[in-house]
């Protein structure tokens, strides 16, 4: 399925009022399913939760502005290289992201919304992954 901006935006509108409860649930799910990635994150996740929620909002806001979106995702990929992230981490993150959105979207979630978000995450993982690999393990600041 291709990206359906209407489904992505309407389902995120249902998730957004839950704020950082969304990102707390995401990290809990990710770490329960993939405890090996926990070491890539700070012990306290408050700032990280805020940044993730802001990044999700920016993703949805710029969904139809390809140049801006690619710029945001490229920058995120470079930064994640410096954190020790690897391309093989992206599938686990995608599973946890979809599970989180499904959990919070309520009636706004459907198989079509899930497919649209999976398509969005495919672009996210591909764009960030290419930037991450290009940046190497030192990341943009190294």
Which descriptors would you attach to this protein?
single chain; 142 residues; mainly alpha; Globin-like
Quick rundown:
The chain is mainly alpha-helical and 142 residues long.
Query: Rounded to an integer, what's the Rg over CA atoms?
Result: 14 Å
Biggest β-sheet description: none
The amount of beta strand, in percent, is under 5%
Mean pLDDT: 92
Secondary structure category: mainly alpha
CATH level-1 class: Mainly Alpha
SSE string, helices as H and strands as E:
HHHHHH
How many β-strands, per DSSP? 0
Say what the CATH topology is. Globin-like
How would you portray this structure in words?
Keywords: Heme, Iron, Metal-binding, Oxygen transport, Transport. Pfam families: Globin. The protein has helices spanning 5-15, 20-33, 46-61, 66-82, 90-105, 111-135. The model has no long low-confidence stretch (mean pLDDT 92). The protein is globular, with a radius of gyration of 14 Å. The protein has a single domain (5-135), classed as Globins (Globin-like). The protein is mainly α and 142 residues long.
SSE topology:
Blueprint: H1 5-15, H2 20-33, H3 46-61, H4 66-82, H5 90-105, H6 111-135
């Amino acid at each position: 399925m291709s990206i359906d901006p209407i489904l992505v935006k309407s389902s995120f509108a249902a998730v957004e009022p839950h704020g950082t409860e969304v990102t707390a649930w995401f990290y809990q799910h990710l770490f329960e399913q993939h405890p090996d990635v926990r070491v890539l994150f700070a012990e306290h996740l408050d700032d990280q939760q805020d940044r993730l929620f802001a990044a999700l909002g920016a993703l949805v806001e710029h969904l139809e502005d390809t140049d801006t979106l690619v710029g945001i995702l490229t920058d995120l990929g470079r930064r994640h290289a410096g954190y020790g992230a690897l391309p093989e981490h992206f599938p686990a993150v995608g599973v946890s992201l979809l599970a989180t959105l499904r959990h919070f979207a309520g009636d706004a979630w459907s198989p079509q919304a899930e497919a649209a978000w999976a398509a969005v995450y495919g672009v996210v993982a591909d764009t960030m992954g290419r930037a991450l690999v290009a940046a190497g393990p030192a990341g943009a600041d190294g």
